[in-house]
Write a structure and sequence with these properties.
Layout lengths: L2 H11 L2 E5 L24 E9 L2 E10 L7 E3 L22 E8 L1 H6 L4 E2 L1 H11 L7 E5 L9 H5 L1 E2 L2 E2 L3 E2 L1 H9 L5 E3 L18 H8 L3 E3 L13 E7 L7 E11 L1
Parallel strand pairs: 5-7, 6-10, 7-11, 11-12
Antiparallel strand pairs: 1-14, 2-3, 4-12, 4-14, 5-13, 8-9, 13-14
Organism: Microlunatus ginsengisoli
Protein name: Cyclase family protein
InterPro entries: KFase/CYL, KFase_sf
Amino acid sequence: MTVLAELLGQVTSGSVQVIDLTAPLSSETPVLRLPPPFANTIHLSLEEVSNFDDAGPMWRWNNIHTGEHTGTHLDAPAHWATGRAGLTVDEIPLTRLIGPAIVLDLADEVAADPDFLLEPDHLLGWEAANGPIPDGAWVLLRTGWSARASDEAAFLNADENGPHTPGPSVDAARWLANERAITGLGVETVGIDAGSAGGMEPAFPAHHFLLGAGKFGLTQLQNLDALPAAGALLVVAPLPIVGGTGSPARAIALVER
């Protein structure tokens, strides 16, 4: 039996579980809100082309209106100033979109403090318990934040002082970019940076360091509680938008039972 035939058999039998980590994409999907004078991307909307009517008697279809960075999406290096000469989403090799996933369970810490910051010690603690982070891994932060995804205000969690959402500290972002050969960082929140990241030095350090190092971001994930700390395989499928700085993506994990 070939490797692929064996994998297909295990998926069919359920011994390998396929878990969808993607948030449903609709007009209700939360979208990042930047303060003036910065411009914002748009929510998803569908424009009807035909609906079994005179414009198309046997078919229904829609035009899609949305931004590259809406819903569960991939950030390509070209998205950020530090990676502006880097890969656009259509240029990413397919082999970099498939890799091992490791999960840091930070849900209890975030429940106690929505401004919680990941630090290098959390990553080193994960390695002490689970072994070295594999080369090519996606580092996924389980925070429980996806439970807020049906309520944009709760999901963005902003007040007069700005948004309050978890993410990596400056030191953790630098560590992930430079100390391990990871593929990227995945989060449950609207972006890979913490809500307080605009006031950090440098600002938005996850974008600054990771995209500047040719690594990727993956946002608005769900169902991370269904993944083990180590051992899952992650497949990320963005649209190959020519010149795109990112794309809505389907994120799927394969987990051995």
